[in-house]
C-alpha cells in the first residue's frame, strides 16, 4: 500500500503542474471514493489488498496537491504558517486514524470504516467541484487569466456566463519572481522526480525528511503492540492513546509555522538581499536545526523507559509520545517549507518527490520495527531510531552551509 502511495504522486504531481490543480484533484477524489465503496462491499482478502493499494493511490496525490495550492497562492513570507496548516491532514492521519477506526470497528464493524471514508470524501468532493478555483500559475498566472475547460469551477463558469457578475481580476503582488502564465505545455513526465533526488541541496533535504518521517512511522507502528503487551489496553483504549500524538502534531504545526515565518521576515529585514542571493536555507534551518538536535532526547527516554519488566506510568509514556510527535512534526514541516521555497515554480512535483521518499522509507520502517523489537528488544530498537534522527543533523548542516552555493551552480 505504501509503495503505491509513494509512486502515485509522481504521476499526479507532474499532471497537476501541467494540466492544473482542479483536474488532478477531481481525478484523485474519484479514485478514492470509488475504491472506498468497493472496499466496503468486498469480502475477499486479495481484493482488500488490491483495493487498498488503489485507494492509497487516490489519497496520496492530494498530499502534493495541497502543498502545491498553498505555494500557488501564498508568498514566501507567509509560507510557513500555511504550509504547516496544509500538512496537518497528512501528519495527523497516523494518530487520529486509529482513534476513529477503533471506535467504528468496535461498534459498527470494519466495513463501516470504508463507508465513513467514502461519505466523508464525497462531502468534501462536492464543494470542491462547485467552488474550488484553479490556482496553477502556468494556467491562470497570478489569477488575472481566466481558466477554461475543467480548470473552471461550476461557480466560476456560472459567473462568467453573466457579464454583470464577473469578478474584477487584480494581479497579486509577490516577493518572488513572476511565473509567466500560458507557458508551453510539456509532456507529463513522472521520471522528473528522479532528477530531484540527485539535485543538491534538494536531495539532502529529501533524504533528511524521509528519515524523519520513517522515524515517526517506526514509533507509530510499534506503539499499539507496546501498549497492549505492557499495559494490557484494549483496541479502543489503544486508539484513544494516540490522542497525545495527535495533540503534539496539531500544536507543533500551529506554532512552528508562525515561528518559521517570523524568522524568515527577520532575516529578510536584516540582510535586504536580492531574492536570488537570499539564503533561504538559513532562514528555515535556523529554526529547524535546533529542533533536530533536541528531537532524539525524548526518543531515547522513550526507549529507556519502555521495557515491560519495569514499565513507567502510562501518563509518562503518553507524555513522551506527545513530545516526540511535537518535535518530529516541527522538523518535517520545516523541511517541507524549504522544499517548496526552493522549487516554488513546480511545487506539485517537488512534493510528489518528497512523498515518494517518505513513503518508501516509511514503509521500510513499518516493516522492520516489529522484527527489530522481537530480535533486539524495545530499548535497542528505539535507540536506533534516535540515532537515525541524529544522523539528519550533519545532512542539514551541509544544506545550511553550502545550500546557496549549490543552487547557484544549478
Automatic annotation (TrEMBL):
It is a multi-pass membrane protein. It comes from Aspergillus sergii. GO terms for molecular function: transmembrane transporter activity. It holds the Pfam family MFS_1. One of its GO terms (cellular component) is plasma membrane. InterPro entries: MFS (IPR011701), MFS_dom (IPR020846), MFS_trans_sf (IPR036259). Residues 1-409 form the Major facilitator superfamily (MFS) profile domain. The keyword Membrane applies. Keywords: Membrane, Transmembrane, Transmembrane helix. It is found in: Membrane. It comes from the Eukaryota. The chain crosses the membrane at residues 24-41, 113-132, 194-219, 239-264, 285-304, 316-335, 356-373, 379-400. This is Major facilitator superfamily domain-containing protein.
Amino acid at each position: 500500500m505504501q509503495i503505491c502511495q509513494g509512486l502515485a504522486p509522481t504521476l499526479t504531481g507532474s499532471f497537476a503542474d501541467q494540466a492544473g490543480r482542479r483536474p488532478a484533484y477531481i481525478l484523485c477524489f474519484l479514485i478514492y471514493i470509488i475504491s472506498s465503496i468497493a472496499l466496503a462491499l468486498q469480502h475477499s482478502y486479495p481484493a482488500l489488498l488490491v483495493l487498498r493499494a488503489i485507494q492509497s493511490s487516490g489519497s496520496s496525490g492530494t498530499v502534493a496537491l495541497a502543498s502545491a495550492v498553498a505555494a500557488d497562492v501564498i508568498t514566501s513570507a507567509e509560507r510557513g504558517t500555511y504550509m504547516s496548516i496544509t500538512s496537518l491532514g497528512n501528519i495527523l492521519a497516523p494518530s487520529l486514524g486509529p482513534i476513529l477506526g477503533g471506535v467504528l470497528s468496535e461498534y459498527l464493524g470494519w466495513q463501516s470504516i470504508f463507508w465513513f471514508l467514502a461519505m466523508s470524501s464525497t462531502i468534501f468532493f462536492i464543494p470542491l467541484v462547485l467552488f474550488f478555483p484553479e490556482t496553477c500559475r502556468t494556467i491562470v498566472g497570478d489569477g488575472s487569466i481566466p481558466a477554461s475547460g475543467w480548470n473552471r469551477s461550476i461557480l466560476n463558469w456560472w459567473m462568467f456566463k453573466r457579464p454583470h457578475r464577473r469578478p474584477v481580476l487584480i494581479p497579486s503582488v509577490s516577493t518572488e519572481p513572476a511565473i509567466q502564465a500560458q507557458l508551453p505545455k510539456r509532456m507529463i513526465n513522472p521520471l522528473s522526480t528522479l532528477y530531484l533526488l540527485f539535485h543538491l541541496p534538494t536531495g539532502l533535504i529529501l533524504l533528511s525528511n524521509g528519515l524523519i518521517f520513517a522515524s515517526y512511522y517506526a514509533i507509530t507502528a510499534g506503539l499499539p503492540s507496546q501498549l497492549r503487551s505492557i499495559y494490557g489496553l484494549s483496541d479502543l483504549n489503544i486508539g484513544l492513546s494516540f490522542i497525545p500524538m495527535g495533540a503534539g502534531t496539531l500544536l507543533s504545526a500551529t506554532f512552528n509555522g508562525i515561528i518559521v515565518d517570523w524568522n524568515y521576515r527577520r532575516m529578510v529585514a536584516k540582510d535586504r538581499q536580492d531574492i536570488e542571493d537570499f539564503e533561504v536555507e538559513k532562514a528555515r534551518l535556523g529554526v529547524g536545526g535546533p529542533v533536530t538536535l533536541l528531537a532524539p532526547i525524548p526518543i531515547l527516554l522513550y526507549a529507556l523507559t519502555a521495557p515491560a519488566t519495569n514499565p513507567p506510568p502510562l501518563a509518562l509514556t503518553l507524555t513522551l509520545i506527545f513530545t516526540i510527535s511535537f518535535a518530529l512534526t516541527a522538523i518535517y514541516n520545516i523541511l517541507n517549507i524549504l522544499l517548496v521555497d526552493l522549487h516554488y515554480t513546480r511545487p506539485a512535483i517537488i512534493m510528489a518527490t518528497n512523498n515518494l521518499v517518505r513513503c518508501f522509507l516509511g514503509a521500510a520502517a513499518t516493516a522492520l520495527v516489529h522484527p527489530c523489537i522481537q530480535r533486539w528488544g524495545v530499548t535497542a530498537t528505539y535507540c536506533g531510531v534516535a540515532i537515525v534522527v541524529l544522523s539528519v543533523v550533519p545532512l542539514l548542516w551541509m544544506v545550511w552551509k553550502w545550500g546557496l552555493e549549490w543552487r547557484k551552480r544549478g
